[in-house]
């Protein structure tokens, strides 16, 4: 996607001198514009993703690959001039994918292309067999009474709609997370769903499902195989009977970790802006889109700020969170890295100015969303700098800045959002096609330009996004 051509820095400077006073020092705006222009010339984010995915490939949570990537990340942070670099470990149950297969036994024997859902339990050694109970929508499954699927394999074939903001995925992700549990409540012995993807290629999407008592072996079907099952059901050849097999499960206790570095503010160092992405990935691809791009974008933005001759007034901290992808056995919830960061800084939450992450692929940023009580003059300053990048202001208040920001938001930390175009994100998300070949370097540069410029304005300002009662 082509980017809107940035206007000349000199022209912007002249316009600012003639503009009314706003809640941002004109010098801060000029520096933000310079950061924007520098990033558009080549931010280095693509090279970070390339290095990460080449050296370490996939980085499932709790594996040596993830730990090695974290050590490498800390080395990069130090080389880029970040301060207080740390690798903070926490306990984790790592999930292992082994052999997996699903086949139609009758009426027309054939293999299907599938992948086990993350956190799924294994089948017995001989697999699980049963008649397929095929539902076009998740609601149809939920409408089935308890016991109605006894001994059967539940199959949900609902499509994920394509949407720029990912809303289609939001509407179908409960099928993957809750579907196996709901099927088990109705007596099913296995669960299949149409992959939560927006393409029609013959590969499947993994992703976390709920784990704990009552779960059953669970798989995602490639879209063409989901359509094949529907055709078989409707062909009038008799019941569709399936066999499932999966040698998967949780390993013994392991560890994951967050990688942290910062540029310390020179005026109000205790006021902290937190940014980042998650370092772990699923095992099918190399985690370039999800979320190598995000860790690279935010780190490259902070690196540009670290290279300036002056430091920002506030501290900017980048976190490469670990273990975002995999659910944990009860009582532990998901987002283990984000929860560890928030819990270990609970007494510092009041000093966190804002939080956001980049975790929606490598598409260009198209909108900025701020908390409901954001200062209008700060918003005006931000949009002066971001508009030339093709970014507009989204008046819908930001309630979160990405999955890993959730635990901090729960502690009262305000979130902002730099919204990426995710129209094609779910074509590759959680699949073998999540590789660096799907990334356009110029889109990463546009992302870095937006992040670096916005962060500088926020760090140089004295604005607070918190409601007055929390200040």
Structural account:
The longest helix is centred in the C-terminal third of the chain and has 20 residues, at 441-460. The radius of gyration is 24 Å and the shape is elongated. The protein is an alpha/beta fold. The strands form three sheets. An eight-stranded mixed sheet has the order 3-2-9-5-6-7-8-4. It has 13 helices and 16 strands. It has helices at residues 9-18, 26-40, 45-56, 64-79, 138-143, 167-185, 223-234, 288-306, 336-344, 376-386, 406-410, 425-428, 441-460; strands spanning 83-96, 100-106, 110-112, 114-116, 128-135, 153-156, 190-194, 218-221, 241-246, 249-263, 268-278, 314-321, 352-355, 365-369, 392-393, 417-420. The model is unreliable at 1-22 (pLDDT under 50). Helix 1 (9-18) packs antiparallel against helix 2 and helix 10 (376-386) packs antiparallel against helix 13. It folds into two domains: 9-95 and 252-470, Zn peptidases (Aminopeptidase, 3-Layer(aba) Sandwich); 98-247, Glucose Oxidase, domain 1. 34% of the residues lie in helices and 22% in strands. The relative contact order is 0.19. This is Carboxypeptidase Q. It is found in: Endoplasmic reticulum; Golgi apparatus; Lysosome; Secreted. Residues 1-23 form the signal peptide. Homodimer. The monomeric form is inactive while the homodimer is active. Residues 258-454 form the Peptidase M28 domain.
